[in-house]
């Protein structure tokens, strides 16, 4: 009996890359996007030219703009932006399918982690979270990648890993959903700060220090929420942070770099600007942390820049003159 297809909800760069990775493992994939004419063009050309130019889609990938076409799929990979996860989940019928969150962020309006959002909207669906150091373009090209897949029950995580993992797309099962989510969400905020350091020409020493302090922030908030430190020191914490905050291939780091070089904020945030999840996560993360008595000085500096409260130079000065604490 043939295996059911794997569904991917979201046809941006990450969703398309995930579809490629799974299809290479021998599975049929249904890739959904909300723009019908765009999906039709991709189906004809077999290239998602807007998000992954030059990458020819695997023959096992079928494209659709109809969510009902995903009905045969037992596993859905949700690769829509974090701030659109709730509205997308409301469009999915709660059929008990396994939903794997592939976005990274914290909901701005509620400060909910994405697994909490999904649990509210699809309470009868088993859920998991996929995160780790991964650039979509490299995954799409079949370059080696290792990620963490966490579910509340380790047995479910192992089952999904068995369904999706390939030699070049290696998934490690876990059950620390909170740790995986917090690592993935906050690393984007720290990456913006790292980009600012690069754009301001503050040097590699400063960037290394900032990344290290950023990891401490991620660990503080994560453990306050119930995450395990070993998760935050693993692929979905330190691994993802190191990749994202050290490369201008990261949209969040590049966004920070442009800010550091003096680009006006409003020129970097717009309908046609690349999606930078850290922009939407920064303030939500700080407010979530404040509710749990946790300080996030680097994330707070980024949030204040994005709010227009501080200039880049004011944020840099505030971090440089912040008194060191013994616990740090």
List the helices and strands and how they pair.
Elements: E1 6-9, H1 13-24, E2 29-32, H2 36-45, E3 61-64, E4 75-78, H3 85-91, E5 98-101, H4 114-121, E6 127-131, H5 136-140, E7 145-150, H6 154-164, E8 169-174, H7 177-199, H8 204-225, H9 229-232, H10 235-245, H11 251-260, H12 265-268, H13 277-291, H14 297-307, H15 312-320
Parallel strand pairs: 1-2, 1-4, 2-3, 4-5, 5-6, 7-8
Antiparallel strand pairs: 6-7
Helix pairs in contact: 3-4, 7-8, 7-10, 7-11, 7-13, 7-14, 13-14, 14-15
Give the tally of β-strands: 8
Which descriptor suits the 3D outline?
Answer: globular
- N-C termini distance: 56 Å
CATH superfamily of the largest domain: NAD(P)-binding Rossmann-like Domain
CATH class of the largest domain: Alpha Beta
Average pLDDT = 95
Number of helices: 15
- How is the biggest beta sheet arranged? 8 strands, mixed
Q: Fraction of residues in helices?
A: 40-55%
